[in-house]
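Below sits our specimen:

——
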Amino acid sequence: MQEEGLRRQIMGVISHVLTDEGTDLDVRMALLRHLGENPGSPERALLAHLRDSRRPSAGPDQGSAVAGPV
């Protein structure tokens, strides 16, 4: 039961990132790539996306995929 609630929240976050006009196109494309690499597992896709977005090689506009500047 809790897993369903968590999955629903994760899907809400993913949906927000993909549909928010303020989200950079590169961020959207990266998240879509992770979703494609993790079919049927949105939680893994989001985790991979967040890990990638926090790597030092991420550019200044890619520091956070969900929130504003850190």
Remarks:
- Residues 23-54 form one domain.
- Helices lie at 2-19, 25-37, 42-53.
- The chain is about 60% helix and 0% strand.
- The radius of gyration is 12 Å.
